[in-house]
Fold each of these.
Amino acid sequence: GRWALVIHGGAGVIERGAMTPEREAEYRDAMNAALVRGEAVLDQGGSALDAIEAVIHGMEDDPLFNAGRGAVFTAAGRNELDASIMDGASLEAGAVAGVTQVRHPISLARAVMDNSRHVMLQGEGAETFAREQELEIVPPAYFFTERRWAAMERSLGALGLPIPSRPDGAPAPTGVDHGELDRDAREHRFG
Amino acid sequence: TVGVVALDRAGNIAAGTSTGGTTAKRWGRVGDSPIIGAGTYANNASCGVSATGTGEYFIRLTVASRICALVEFQGLDLQAASDQVIGDELTAMGGDGGIVALTPGGEIAWSFNTPGMYRARLSEGGEPVVAIY
């Protein structure tokens, strides 16, 4: 058989002409890189599950995307990450919700599928399981990006809600492109 | 949100999705991304799907498994099934977002009712396609 791969990096009000050429090029490069990671696995005869992990690892590490590093902030000023994976051959599945310290939530979802009796783990228990599975644990500030923090401040301000303190370990505040925040507000209304 | 559906040379499909959720969300809100059948689904008998969008609507419609059910039980081709669920049913409910999908035969589809979706596809021996709008 022949392998194939299809990827998304989020949907929303992404307006032609509203994004800078530089930012559009960054997204296109990142999507191309994601294809290359998947191709590297599948072309060597690797499994679809391994390809999923390889592709998503890079996207979870890329601040461009709302996943892993680059995730948006909750109203409490935290990054809470969700992920899931499913194997079409066996109908086995794994999922995690609300994790805050696991670098690659997709790998935790796969560990839930492969190494537990369960389908979904959430919060603190999911992170305990991640430690037991010896997955990479990072401090919550690892996920901090100024762009997402500023977007959260803007959203909370519009709702009249209090702004939480910056997370421990977050870098010193830096300037943000407010035009970019306007675009983000339209584009990343949802996850 | 990011997501992938892959078909390997053994004919197996897998799907995965990962997200940070929604900006300034409260109360421990969880969307569709970690919900099997809503944001992620894979079945070698039909297709694999990964979704992105307003999660509450994707959960209520069980979007990912619904597309695969239309392929498996009603014989729709993947693009038609995807467009029915996203373009007709999701839109009629007031939900927005999109999906990427893949069948064991290598048929690829994407469908979205938003102005854009970051997306890419590649089949063995083919040319990569990357699109935004």
Amino acid sequence: STQFIPPYTEDCRTDTYPPNGPTFRGAVGWYTVDLDSPPSKRWDAVITEKKTHLVNMIQAIRDLANAFVPSGKLIELVDVTLPIMADTLPSPFSEEIKGIAAVSGIPLGEVVLFNIFYEVFTV
Amino acid sequence: CTSIVAEDHKGNLIHGRNLDFGLFMGWDVKNKSWIISEKLKPLVVNLDFRRNNQTVFKSTNFAGYVGMLTGIKPHTFTLTMNERFSLDGGYIGIMEWVLGKRDGMWMSFLTRSVLEDANSYEEAKTRLAQTKLLAPAYFILGGNQTGQGCIITRSRLLNIDLLEIDVKLGRWYVLETNYDHWEEPLFLDDRRTPAMKCMNQTAQKNISVNTMYDVLSTKPVLNKLTTYTTLMQVSEGKLESYIRDCPNPCMPW
């Protein structure tokens, strides 16, 4: 019964495809990742184009972390320890993550955090 | 998250998913939305992974994330993963990793390796079921033949359950949110019942990409955490995805 609380729930929608209206924000662009290129270079094109949004998202996570630990120690911990973890990650993931950090200019520890977030989130 | 694999009455398999993320990670009071979910939406990209100038697999991803949460190996299989909550969770796996016990795989690195290297539904199923993980998960896998659709419920070390499509038993689809299918979902987060109600109302004779999108657009299957919807048709090798919004009134999760 807790899942039938209109207007937060609704009857089964129809005719929503092709996507349109207020629940459709937009289509998604296509990019190629060339697995024949070196792992550290594979994501350059994607990251170059999405850099600003990636920096904004990482900043939002930083703000959240600082809300919990205002001293900034949590971010410091991420920036000091997770680069070390980057070296323990299997290939080609380790090199790809380092390549993304280099192209985006985001600290390596924070790119590592984004990539292992599923495991971290359980905390 | 909500992932569905359905078989239509001609035996075609359709795989759809909503990717929900950002719960309790900051609420934007002014815009009535989750901060991280909104920051992730502009990062959604479709990726064509190629080797020797040939497509190996395609995926919907967040730029900067090298693992895979949603993908298709054209004409072979489709794969999505949903989060599974467990006390024996990822933080234990991370601690073991830090302490040097590294025989488990990071979840999204496993899905990426399966999409890259597995050459059949059965091989993908075996690897997803049997590879040690750092964190529990649900893997939702679709194949390219009738009956090939399953939910693999994983703990960190074990394959706990495998639920597969069985049209003879009337199970023409499998559907997973974030709770073990043999248990009731958390009463405050039951997206499964509304989703199954809409799938049953659609019925096998009417299931298609269009009607799968309808199901994934129905509140609360669509909610404030939903960043994108992806639809995949293995026989055509097609993946399409759409960034979503859920205007008020809408369930926060």
Amino acid sequence: TKYTLRKDEL
Amino acid sequence: MNIFRLFGDLSHLAAIAILLLKIWKTRSCAGVSGKTQLLFAVCFITRYIDLFLHFVSLYNTEKVMKLIYISASVFTCYLIFFKFKATYDGNHDSMRAEFLIVPAAGLACLINTKFDAIEILWTFSIYLEAVAILPQLFLISKTGEAETITSHYLFAQGSYRALYILNWIYRYHYESHVDTIAIVAGVVQTILYCDFFYLYITKVVKGQKIVLPA
């Protein structure tokens, strides 16, 4: 599973 | 964006709006924990610090939502601690917020994805949000009751992160996206609402008021 470091959730 | 996250954010917005309306209409913050609202304001500011650092034009709803959350929570604190200070139930709002802030800050320095300032602040915000509702639940247990409108606020506030858990399940399954820190903190946060959810569904939905066995 890739960890998306970009915070795209509030 | 998926349906769970959409309804989660809407539920969160609803919670903030319900609380603001309750305080503004009744011109009273009785039964509302000022400490919880302060902790939420700290959560939003530390989580959305990027808004202040490199201010990008308000080109998408995400930026607007972040600004709404920050301004609404700060305004709520203003109403509680300044405008309607006389109705603030200080002696029942007595949980030590330091006991929540210090461990969250310590844990954020120990367990995080990346040891850099923004990431640590974000992680602190996630850990703090998980326990931020405790002073509010503590206040209700001390006063032994909750106004119906405050119960609706708590239900919306609790539902927001519960819906986010469904969002994370969805994203794990379809986007193989995992953010362990947010998931673990979100589960802890939602668990803290369990007994309130039980009371809400068995009482408030039937039109009764929540009265805790004193």
